[in-house]
Amino acid sequence: MATNFTGQIEEGGEFPPEANRYHLYVSLGCPFAHRVTMVRALKGLEDVIGLSIANCTLGKDGWSFATDAECPGAIPDSVNNFKFLREMYSLSDPNFAGRITVPVLFDTVKNRIVNNESGDIIKILNSSFNKFCKNPSLNLYPANLEMRIDQLNDMINTGINSGVYVAGYATTQDSYRAGVRLVHQTLSELDYILRKTPGGFLLGETLTESDVRLFPTLIRFDPIYVNVFKCNLSRVQDFPHLSAWLKRVFEVEGIRDTVNMRHIKNFYFLSDRASSWNPNRIVPLYNGPLLPSD
């Protein structure tokens, strides 16, 4: 029984690179799906790979699809007209035993999921469609930086991407304390890295996969994780170099359009799992240091 999908898109393989064959399913609220929409925009793949955007809240039945009228910014499933993401997983593997998650990269010819691991998908988008994309020269994972990118990615994943969830879902005071301290320590280390690295990005003048992996969590950090996950030993805006980096990435062409604070806040504050601690469905006005409050 499969618990995830790990297909690759490559010449001569089961899933060959073709324009208008593959489709992405994402949530604008989910930080792991956000990294995928970032790479799609950075590489200029909007006319090559289709996109469906899930409802901005996660319900009891999991991810669902909605119209723009029902949820501004949502895009329904145009491939199979499914209402729920779980239908796509069942179509791809009736015995699937893993979690029903976004993002999903889907093959519309074979009518099955190719990959549902965000780290895999961003690498696929970075390298597999260069014959079709608008920005083939952009390489977020250059060979001369692979080792440094991998090291940074491990640090970012442990201390930031997964770190905020470890703190937020802690069930004991000790595990929460350890989690939130790791997040704070990692933010401090990243601020130091940016202070001593000329060029404005984590590895210098070139935007890399590490920047893409960090941005979705940090754009959510001050308006979401400080409160919802109690990661409140520090904020991004308390770190001058991280703050400057966040603004610099936000201003890279195409990135601003991938940030939808309505979807982000609704995902965290109005999803079914938030009902126990937010029964009155109050959504804060604050959108972080880069965007005006509602």
UniProtKB/TrEMBL annotation:
InterPro entries for this protein? Glutathione-S-Trfase_C-like (IPR010987), Glutathione_S-Trfase (IPR040079), Glutathione_S-Trfase_N (IPR004045), GST_Omega-like_C (IPR047047), GST_Omega/GSH (IPR016639)
Q: Where are the transmembrane segments?
A: none
Question: Which molecular function terms from Gene Ontology are attached?
Answer: glutathione transferase activity
In the record, which residues are listed under signal peptide?
A: none
Q: Which domain of life is it from?
A: Eukaryota
Q: Identify the residues that the record assigns to the GST C-terminal domain, covering every copy.
A: 142-267
| A GO cellular-component term linked to this record | cytoplasm
User: Protein name, please?
Assistant: GST C-terminal domain-containing protein
Species in which this protein is naturally found: Allacma fusca
Q: Output the lineage of the source organism.
A: Eukaryota, Metazoa, Ecdysozoa, Arthropoda, Hexapoda
